[in-house]
Structures are given as C-alpha cells and as structure tokens.
Q: What sequence folds into this?
C-alpha cells in the first residue's frame, strides 16, 4: 500500500489569524496548505535549540529544522525513542512515559537493533553508550505502553509498574 505524502491536520484559528493566513496565501500566490507549510518550515529554520550533548558539533545551538532532519524517521516508535534520548522536551507527556518505560525495562526491551542510522550515527559522539532495542517487542507492546502512560497521567500520584498495569489490564 502506498503511503500518503501528507497528513490531514485540523486546527482552530481566530478569525483575524485565519484572515491573515488568507492574505499571506494571496500575497505568495499559494493555497492555504502550502502557505502554512512554508511558514512552519521558515519557523523551524529560524528557531534555535541547544545542540543535544550527545551530538558532535562545534556550535552550542542548531536549528530545529536541522535537529528534525537528523532525528526524523517515518516510524513513530523509533522517532519517539530518538526524541527521548536527544530532545526529550519535544515529547508529549504520554510519549515520554512510554519511552522511559521502554528504557527502564532492559530485560523486556533490550536487543540488538540500533536507533542510530540514516545519518544519525555520524553525528552522535562515538563514546555515547546507546543501547540496542528489541523493536519487535516494543512494537508489540506500544499500544499497551501508551495506555499505561495515559493511565498514569489520569491517575497522577498513583505508583503502578508497567507489569502490574498489564496484569490488571488482562484481568
């Protein structure tokens, strides 16, 4: 099956911001989607973030576009794990909990698959101690990991291990 090049996004804008987007689209002679994509790309190129400490490099900062270019992969799980290690502030709460659960469960999720490829291995410091993962096990459990993260968010203050959560889920 062929993957779509783009995904749908639904958002709310104030009438004034919607009108501004229409004006900008007209000025640029682009449709609304193309204009919004351009504005996002321009912002990603302008926005500077601190270079992850595990990355080689001579500058303290890099553009968010450059960081995204290094970390992006069209695989939700690998992208989430990459963000967890290199730019955790880019994760939502549930994704951060799911990734931390994976990392904190070496007996369950450690394996031989690296998340450092596609050019990323060239920018990560050679002495970085990056574990290998059992991506099949993570993929198998991903839905449960996200439900666990949501459960913890909705029951803040409750200390329940992932194993205990799975026991109650299957009961």
A:
């Amino acid at each position: 099956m062929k993957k779509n090049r783009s995904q749908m996004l639904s958002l709310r804008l104030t009438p004034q911001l919607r009108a501004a987007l229409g004006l900008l689209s007209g000025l640029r002679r682009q449709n609304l989607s193309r204009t919004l994509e351009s504005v996002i790309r321009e912002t990603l190129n302008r926005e500077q973030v601190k270079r992850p400490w595990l990355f080689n490099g001579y500058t303290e900062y890099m553009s968010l576009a450059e960081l995204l270019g290094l970390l992006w992969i069209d695989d939700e799980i690998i992208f989430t794990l990459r963000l967890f290690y290199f730019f955790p502030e880019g994760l939502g709460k549930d994704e951060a909990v799911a990734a931390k659960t994976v990392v904190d469960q070496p007996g369950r999720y450690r394996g031989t698959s690296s998340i450092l490829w596609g050019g990323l291995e060239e920018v990560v410091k050679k002495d970085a101690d990056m574990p290998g993962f059992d991506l099949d096990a993570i993929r198998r459990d991903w839905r449960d990991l996200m439900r666990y993260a949501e459960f913890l968010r909705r029951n803040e203050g409750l200390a329940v291990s992932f194993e205990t959560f799975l026991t109650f889920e299957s009961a």
